[in-house]
Write a structure and sequence with these properties.
Elements (H helix, E strand, L loop, with lengths): L4 E3 L2 E4 L4 E6 L9 E7 L6 E7 L6 E2 L7 E6 L4 E6 L8 E8 L13 E2 L3 E6 L1
């Protein structure tokens, strides 16, 4: 398993943008898929998108499609989740996680390493 740390959350007004980051302190992402999920109280943790570290295009869930971009930063060894045109309903704790399955793996049960999450709050 890989230790993960999310950062970049915060409070933003509706219509604004945030960039979340996922790092693996002391570890590597090689050959792993890094996924982003979000969760609000009382709801299931839902898939946002994922990307294979080594190559390939990201895969996005419909819930934020068109408003998010996942990118790899090979210099900082991080994966970023850029979120634009944020809405109050995007308020959630956002998590990154890793799996050895491909980027279309949407089930959280297939991900075996998780960060602690970062809070995103979008005000109306």
């Amino acid at each position: 398993q890989v230790q993960l740390e999310e950062s970049g959350g915060g409070l933003v007004q509706a219509g604004g943008s945030l960039r979340l980051s996922c790092a693996a302190p002391g570890g590597v992402f090689n050959s792993l898929t890094i996924g982003w999920f979000r969760q609000t109280p009382g709801k299931e943790r839902e898939f946002v998108g994922a990307v294979i570290w080594d190559a390939g295009n990201p895969y996005y869930a419909d819930i934020l499609k068109g408003r998010v971009t996942i990118s790899r930063d090979y210099v900082q060894n991080k994966v970023h989740l850029q979120m634009n045109s944020l809405k109050p309903e995007d308020t959630a704790i956002y998590y990154c996680a890793t799996t050895r399955y491909g980027p279309t793996t949407t089930s959280r049960d297939r991900y075996n390493s998780w960060g602690q999450g970062t809070q995103v709050t979008v005000s109306s």
